[in-house]
Amino acid sequence: MTYYSFAFGIGSKDSAGNWLEVFYPEPLLYPAADLLEKITQTLGHEGGNGFLELGRQQLETLQHAFPASSDSDSRIAALLQTLMQSTKPLLATFLASDSQPASVPEAYLKLHLLSHRLVKPHATNLNGIFALLPNVAWTNQGAIAVSELAGRQLQARLQGEFLEVMSVDKFPKMANYVVPSGVRIAHTARVRLGAYIGEGTTVMHEGFVNFNAGTDGKAMIEGRISAGVTIGEGSDLGGGCSTMGTLSGGGNELISVGRDCLIGANAGLGFPLGDRCIIEAGLYVTAGTKVSLLDHDNKPVAVVRARELSGRNDLLFRRNSNTGMVECKTNKSKIELNAELHAHN
Amino acid sequence: MTYYSFAFGIGSKDSAGNWLEVFYPEPLLYPAADLLEKITQTLGHEGGNGFLELGRQQLETLQHAFPASSDSDSRIAALLQTLMQSTKPLLATFLASDSQPASVPEAYLKLHLLSHRLVKPHATNLNGIFALLPNVAWTNQGAIAVSELAGRQLQARLQGEFLEVMSVDKFPKMANYVVPSGVRIAHTARVRLGAYIGEGTTVMHEGFVNFNAGTDGKAMIEGRISAGVTIGEGSDLGGGCSTMGTLSGGGNELISVGRDCLIGANAGLGFPLGDRCIIEAGLYVTAGTKVSLLDHDNKPVAVVRARELSGRNDLLFRRNSNTGMVECKTNKSKIELNAELHAHN
Amino acid sequence: MTYYSFAFGIGSKDSAGNWLEVFYPEPLLYPAADLLEKITQTLGHEGGNGFLELGRQQLETLQHAFPASSDSDSRIAALLQTLMQSTKPLLATFLASDSQPASVPEAYLKLHLLSHRLVKPHATNLNGIFALLPNVAWTNQGAIAVSELAGRQLQARLQGEFLEVMSVDKFPKMANYVVPSGVRIAHTARVRLGAYIGEGTTVMHEGFVNFNAGTDGKAMIEGRISAGVTIGEGSDLGGGCSTMGTLSGGGNELISVGRDCLIGANAGLGFPLGDRCIIEAGLYVTAGTKVSLLDHDNKPVAVVRARELSGRNDLLFRRNSNTGMVECKTNKSKIELNAELHAHN
Questions:
Q1: Strand B5-13 relative to strand B19-23: parallel, antiparallel, unpaired?
Q2: N or C: less crowded end of chain C, CB within 10 Å?
Q3: Which residues of A touch C168 (CB under 8 A)?
Q4: Given CB atoms, is B186 within the 8 Å cutoff of chain C?
Q5: How does pLDDT run across C53-80, given as a tens digit for each residue?
Q6: Which residues of chain A from 193 to 222 reach within 8 Å of chain C, CB to CB?
Q7: Distance between CA atoms of B198 and B218, rounded to whole angstroms?
Q8: Sorting pLDDT into bands at 50, 70 and 90, what band is B245?
Q9: Which residues of chain B from 80 to 99 reach within 8 Å of chain A, CB to CB?
Q10: Which residues lie below 8 Å from residue B332, measured CB to CB, with a gap of 6+?
C-alpha cells in the first residue's frame, strides 16, 4: 500500500460546515506502507484520495492502535496524544495518488507538502486549485467565511473587541502554517502557503513568493517570485524586481532563475535565466526583447530575442545608457559563448 | 426632506474625548425622506450636516420609534436592536448635503460611502479631509491616539501583553470597516478606507489602492492605484506598476486607466489612458514623454507628447530595445488612429 | 563618569534563557554623570559595556536610591515605580563606550538610540550586529524563538487560538518599540527598529526604511531606503523607487539623497545625490551609468559616469525618450555647474 501523502490535520469550518482551511503539523510524503495500512484499517478508509473528519471515538480507536508505548510509531503516537486536546475539528487526509485535488483538505495538504519542502514546485498536481479554494477572511480571530465577516465585524465592535482582517484571499500566509528551517521572512504577509523557501533563504520586506514557486537553497529575495517561478541557489533578487508569472499578464513559458544570478533592483525577467547571470538594476528583459550581443571588445555581433538566450549561463544584461540599446555580454568574457551565440542569428 | 447620507456608527475616542474613528455598519446614500424625518424628529436633529452622540436614553427613544415589529423600517429596527449592546460610543451622523466634511464622523461616513460602493471616486466632496483626520495608531487593541501610544506600549509590556502597532496614519485599512462583495485583497494593509474596489477585483500583495480611487469592476491589481486614480473594468495592473497621483510628486492631471488595459509589471503611467491599451513591462510613460508614433509597418510617422494621447484607445507603448526610443503602435493596427494622430503633430 | 548610553529595559527570553529582544522605554544618550554613578554603585556594576538582569531585590534597592519624592531624579524614580509592576524580565544596560555591541541587550539599546532620534545613522557602532541578533518569530503572542515556534503553533491551534506570525527576522518593526513624534507610517511592517525617521516624515505603504538609515526631517517616503542610506529634509521618494544599499547586490559606496530632491516613482539611485536633484520616474541611475551632460540649450557637452556627479546640486536626470540616452541637466539652468562639469571630462 503505497500512498502519495497522508496527514492528520486541524481545520476550520464556516457556520454551514464547509471547510475553510486545514493545518497539518506533520504532513507525510510517501508514508511507510505498514503505517498507512494500519491507519486505513483503523479508520476504515477504503482507499483513494479523500479525508475523514475524526470524532472522539475514532481518535480513541487510533490511540488504541498507536499506544504511547509504541516504539516504531512513536511519532504518530505522540501526535495523536497531542491532537486529543483539540477544541477544533480534526481530520485525516489521504492522498493515494498525486491527482488533482478534489477538496479543501486535499488542496491544503498539497500546499503543505510544498512549504514543508517535501515536494518541489511543479512536482505536485495543483490543477484546479483556484476553483477549489474558498475565499477566506484571515483575521486575528482565525479564518472566517467572507459571507459571515460583516456580522462578525459588527459584533466585535459592539463588544469593544478588535477584529483585524489581515487578508481576504484563497491562500493564507505560509508562516501561520509552517516556517521551514533556516529562513528569514521579514514580512510574512508576502509569502503564500504553497511557497517553497529553501534553507538559507532570506525574504526581505519587498520580497514576495507565490505558491508553487520558490528558492532552491540559500538566496536573498527582495523581489517578487511569481507563481510557478523557481530561483536557483546563491541567487539574489534585488528590491522590487519582477519575474513574470503565467497566471496573468505574462506568457505561457515558465520562468526560472539559475544559480548565483543577480537580478538588479526594479529589474524584470520574462524568460528562463541560466546560471551566473546578471540583469542590471532597472532593466526589464521580456522574452521578446531584442538584445544586442556583444563580444568581449564590446562590439555588437548579433541581435537576438531574449528568449533565444533562455537557460544560457554567464550573461550580463544592461541597457546601454548612451544608445538605449539592450545589450548582453558574457558575464565572464567567455568567447566560446559568443561564438555559439553567433550561430543563433 | 432629502438628505445626502445618514448612518448610525460606533466610534473610538481618545482619553480627551476626541473622535479617533467611526465604524458605520450600514451607511445610507440618499436615505428615504420619511425615514430621515422620523430619525431627525426622534433625535431632535435640527438639520444640516453633523452628528449626535447617542446616550442610553436616545437609543431607547429610537427603539421606541422603530419597534422590532416594524415592517417598513425593519432593517433600521434590527440595527438599533443590535447597537443597544454596544460598549463603545454610538453616534448618528447626518449629511444633509455633500459639502466639505467638518468633523471626523462626517469624514468617516464619506469614506464609508466610497468603500461600500455607494459613491464613485471623485463623486463625494472630500476637500480638507487630510487636515480633519487625526493621525491614529492602529493597533491590535484598537485605535489609540498617537500621544497616548508610548504609555500604552509600556503598560502592555509590563503586563506581558503584546501591543501590535500596525499603522500610524490618518486613514485606516478598508478591510477593518468593510469588505465589499466579490473581491479578494491579499494583503489588506495596502487598501485604505475610502478605496472603491469593484466587484470581481483582486488586489494582490503588491497591489495598493489609496482613498478616492479604485476599480470599476473586475480587475487584477498588482500595482499601485494612487489617490484619485480610477481603473476601468477588465484591466490588469502588473506587479509593482505605478500610476501617478496628484498628491505628491505627480502633476495636476487626474490619471485614469480605461477598460481592458494592461500596464506591465514595474511600468508606470502619468497620463489618462484609453481602453484596450498596453504599456510594456518596465516602461514608465509620463505625460511629458516624447512618443514616436508608428504606422502598421512600424514606420515612425510623428512624435508627440504622451499627454496628447490621453484617452485614446487601442494603443501599445513600448521602448524600442534597439534604439531606446519610446514608441506607440495601435494595439489593433487601426490605420484611422494613426491618420488622426498625424494631425496632432 | 561619562557613559555613552544607559537604559532600563523589559525583555523576552526563549525557554533556554537566551534574550530574544529588549524594549527600552526611555533610553539615555550621554546620561548625567552623577545619575550613572548612583546607578552603577547601587547595582554594583563594575563599569564597561554590559547588562544586568534585575531581580526584585535589586529593583527595591534602586527604588530606595531613587525615592518617588526625588526631585533631581524624578523621571528615573517614576520609571522605576512603573517597572516594578513588570511580569517580564527587567534589565539595566550600560554602554560605557560606543564599541561594537556584544550582547542582544546592547544591540537593542543601540537600535533604540537610532529610532528615538538620539543618534543619527552611522553615528553609532553597529559592527557585527547581524551575527549577534537571533532570528525571532514576531507573533501576536510576542517574540518566540524560531526553534520553539512549531510547538507553539500546534498548541495554539489545538486550543482554537490564533497564533499570527508577522515576521521571522533578526530585526523587529520599529513601531512596536517607539513611534517618534510627528510621523506617519502607513504600514509599520516596512520600518525596522534602528530606522531614524525624522520629524515630519510620512512613510507610505510602499515606503521602506531599513535600520541605520532614514530621513533628516520632513520627507515623503514611498520608496525604499536601504540600510545605511540617508535622505535629506524636504525630499520625496516616489512610489517603489530604490536606493542601493551596501549589504547585498549594491556597491561599497554609501548612498545618500540631499535636501529637496525628488526621486520619481519606480526610479533608482546608485550614487550619493546632492540637493534639489530630480531623477525622473522609471529611471535607474547607478554609479556606473554613463550620463550625457547637457547645457541649457540641451546640447550635450560631456559624458561622465554618474558617480562623478556625486553630491552635486540642482541636477535633473532623465532618459531621452527619443534616443534612449541618459541625460543630466542642471535643474536650475546654472551655467556654472555645467562649466565645472566640463572640467571633469
A1: antiparallel
A2: C
A3: 175, 179, 183-186, 188
A4: no
A5: 999 999 999 999 998 877 778 889 999 9
A6: 205-206, 220, 222
A7: 6
A8: confident
A9: 82-83, 85-88
A10: B276, B314
Q: What is the C-alpha separation between B310 and B253, in angstroms, rounded?
A: 10
Q: Which of residues 156-175 of C touch B (CB under 8 A)?
A: 166, 173, 175
Instruction: Select the residue of B177, B178, B281 nearest A286 (Cβ to Cβ).
Output: B281
Tell me, letter by letter, the H, E, C secondary structure of A124-139.
CCCCCHHHHCCCEEEE
Element (H, E) at A219: strand A219-221
B308 catalytically annotated: no
- Chain segment C191-200, per-residue pLDDT in tens: 999 999 999 9
Beta strands B236-237 and B262-263 are parallel
Residue B15 burial (CB < 10 Å; 0-12/13-18/19+)? exposed
CA atoms within 13 A of residue C263's CA, in its CB half-sphere: 34
Q: How many CB atoms lie within 10 A of CB A151?
A: 13
Is A303 in Cβ contact with B281 (below 8 Å)?
Answer: no
What SS3 class is residue A334?
coil
Q: Which three cell numbers stand for residue A212?
A: 508553487
With b meaning 16 or more CB within 10 Å and e meaning fewer, what string describes C77-116? Answer: bebbeebeebebbbbbbbbbebeebeebbbbbbbbbbbbb
Block residue for cell numbers 486549485: A129
Q: Which ipTM was obtained for this model?
A: 0.94
Cα separations (Å) of A268 from A273, B103, B267, B326? 11, 46, 10, 18
Instruction: From chain A, pick out residues whose CB is under 8 angstroms from the CB of B191.
Output: none
Q: Residue B219: closest CA among chain A residues belongs to which residue?
A: A248
User: Judging by DSSP bridges, how do beta strands A262-263 and B136-139 pair with one another?
Assistant: unpaired
Burial class (CB in 10 A: 0-12, 13-18, 19+), A304: middle
Contact B23 A157 (CB under 8 A): yes
Share of chain A above pLDDT 70, in %: 93
pTM for the full predicted model: 0.95
A81 residue type, one letter:
Q
Helices (H), A146-224: 146-158
CA B100-B103-B109 angle, 5° bins: 75
**Which amino acid, one-letter code, is at A225?**
I
